[in-house]
Design goal:
Rossmann fold, globular, alpha/beta, 5 helices, single chain, seven-stranded mixed beta sheet
């Protein structure tokens, strides 16, 4: 089992704050991978608030794919902890980037996109394992809400749920956050 910590919970459950505090308390050098894309005014505001909450000495990388390239970054060897926030935004980005028409595509095309997403996750896990880094991952728990009324929402929920299960199996620790309170579940 790799040194992977998965932190999940609902929207505004405190999972990012918990992950950031865990990274800070490690007293190690942190590489923060932000997967959000600044696509509208509200997202820009959320990104700004996240930036303001992070320590200034953390290296920040805005990236949601091609994680095998991070080992080639200047200074990669010096970072002990990699904090990625968040997996579900990464999944969203890769789904939308696929160019599929989710109203008309067939399930084989969806399966191919899911395989691509899992390959991107494996690139990150392989780098972490080969370089002996600690990985803290933030993700949204997507299976406790309403069933989406549109096809893309269902596809996203299903893929994100399976990705979360995959990561939870690989993780050495898993936390679930509710109302700012983390609970260790693995």
């Amino acid at each position: 089992m790799e040194d992977i910590i998965l932190i999940t919970g609902g929207a505004r459950s405190g999972k990012s704050r918990f992950a950031e505090n865990m990274a800070k308390e490690s007293n190690k050098r942190v590489l923060y991978i932000a997967t959000a894309i600044s696509c509208d005014k509200d997202m820009k505001d959320r990104i700004l608030k996240h930036k303001q909450s992070r320590p200034k000495d953390w290296k920040v990388l805005e990236k949601y794919k091609e994680f095998d390239e991070i080992k080639d970054l200047d200074g990669f060897k010096q970072w002990d902890v990699i904090l990625l926030d968040c997996i579900t935004l990464m999944v969203s980005n890769l789904l939308l980037e696929s160019g599929l028409d989710f109203d008309t595509c067939n399930m084989l095309e969806v399966d191919n996109v899911e395989e691509y997403i899992l390959n991107e996750i494996d690139k990150l896990l392989n780098v972490v394992k080969s370089e002996g880094k600690r990985l803290i991952l933030v993700t949204n728990e997507v299976g406790m809400g309403l069933v989406p009324s549109y096809r893309l929402g269902n596809i996203f929920r299903d893929i994100a749920g399976r990705v979360n299960q995959y990561l939870a199996q690989r993780a050495s620790e898993v936390y679930f956050t509710v109302s700012g309170i983390p609970m260790k579940i693995k």
